[in-house]
Design brief:
Elements: H1 4-7, H2 11-19, H3 27-37, E1 42-45, H4 52-63, E2 73-76, H5 80-94, E3 102-105, H6 111-120, E4 124-127, H7 129-138, E5 148-151, H8 154-159, H9 163-171, E6 178-183, H10 188-197, E7 202-205, H11 211-214, E8 216-222, H12 228-239, E9 244-247, H13 251-263, E10 268-271, H14 277-288, E11 294-297, E12 312-315, H15 322-329, E13 339-345, H16 350-360, E14 365-366
Parallel strand pairs: 1-6, 1-7, 2-4, 2-5, 3-4, 5-6, 8-13, 8-14, 9-11, 9-12, 10-11, 12-13
Length: 369
């Protein structure tokens, strides 16, 4: 069994990891860290929740030279939530007294604060594509010194239409950089991006384990679109979840459902891309503090969502592929507790249900309400 020392991580960094209770590397860390420390390009195929963030942060921290006041590493992520999560992991690894300057760059932030930080000297930038392009156009961020570049959740970038922005950013980077691309799935456009911009990348593939599936009791409730809202409320009354995430396909549907739940006296709130960053953080905090019981969310807003104590996930709208289904229901059944995932299926959704059942190699039990 490998440990962090045998992977090439410095003693000082291992102490920081141990203090956080991180003793044993996960499979993606075990495979990726030695390759990255040797400065090879890497394509890592791994789900969220496999520990891939540490797999690229540790090798980056091994190589940052704090004597130089310049940006040496750039990490791009598709959503603000994910950028914040990576930044928070990074801050845990570097600690308060660290000389490593880090900056998170995403929409809805105070630009002046970012500029002041850049003046003081930043070594690692974690950014969403839109806001980073803003800085490049204003010439307030210089990427000519970047030696390490991470493209995280590349398939999500594609789904959200960010690939043109990503290409513009890559063109502003030096050619002799190290590139690390992580993605849960490998659509053709992502493969093409890798072929175009990477230098003889090594590939690492870690299967998302079935732990989440085995720890989650899954069921399907057949419905029509017209009955769906009433059926959801009947299920909430019957199951009485402690904390639950309810997934909707679009922002508009999330807003409409949340309004209906609130007007029927349920403690709910919504999480989607139209909210300001401050509002999102406030909603998440209220959910963590259990001031609200039901979080009505879209897939993109819930990327990287990790809240202790989520007992139920409701697929109000069925996900359209097996990856999203596994990702959604993985929000519950954590830390050994059994979670419950309920998917509402109208007759027009039957093809997606077949796809999901094929992907997870099991038939999901139908339940009557």
């Amino acid at each position: 069994m490998a440990n962090f020392k045998s992977l090439g991580v410095k003693e000082q960094q291992i102490e920081v990891l141990n203090k956080q209770g991180i003793i044993q590397p996960t499979p993606i860390q075990e495979k990726a860290i030695p390759i990255l420390i040797e400065k090879h390009d890497l394509i890592g195929q791994a789900q969220t929740g496999t520990g891939k963030t540490l797999a690229f942060l540790l090798p980056i921290l091994e190589r940052v030279d704090t004597s130089k006041k310049e940006i040496q590493a750039l990490i791009i992520s598709p959503t603000r939530e994910l950028a914040l999560q990576i930044t928070s992991e990074l801050n845990k690894l570097t600690g308060e007294s660290s000389e490593v300057g880090t900056l998170a760059v995403y929409g809805g932030q105070d630009i002046q604060g970012q500029l002041n930080k850049l003046k003081r000297g930043v070594h690692i930038v974690v950014a969403t594509p839109g806001r980073l392009l803003d800085h490049l156009r204003r010439e307030t961020i210089d990427l000519s010194t970047v030696t390490m570049f991470v493209l995280d959740e590349a398939d999500q970038m594609l789904h959200m239409g960010f690939l043109p922005e990503v290409e513009t950013i890559i063109q502003a980077l030096p050619d002799d950089r190290q590139t690390m691309l992580f993605s849960a799935t490998m659509p053709n456009e992502v493969k093409k991006l890798a072929r175009t911009y990477m230098n003889k990348p090594k590939e690492v593939h870690v299967k998302g384990d079935n732990v989440t599936l085995d720890e989650v009791k899954q069921m399907v409730i057949e419905t029509t679109d017209r009955e769906k809202q009433d059926k959801l409320m009947a299920v909430l009354d019957q199951f009485r979840p402690f904390l639950a995430v309810i997934f909707c396909r679009t922002k508009r549907r999330a807003m409409k459902l949340n309004a209906a739940l609130q007007s029927n006296g349920y403690l709910s709130d919504e999480l989607h891309g139209d909210l300001s960053q401050a509002k999102r953080e406030k909603v998440m905090q209220r959910f963590r503090d259990m001031k609200i019981q039901y979080l009505v969310a879209t897939d993109v807003a819930a990327r990287g969502l990790d809240v202790e104590g989520v007992t139920h996930v409701f697929n109000y709208d069925i996900p359209q592929d097996v990856e999203s289904y596994i990702h959604r229901i993985g929000r519950t059944g954590r830390a050994g507790g059994e979670g419950i995932a309920v998917t509402f299926v109208a007759s027009k959704d039957s093809q997606y249900l077949k796809l999901i059942e094929r992907g997870i190699k099991r038939t999901i039990k139908r339940k009557e309400i």
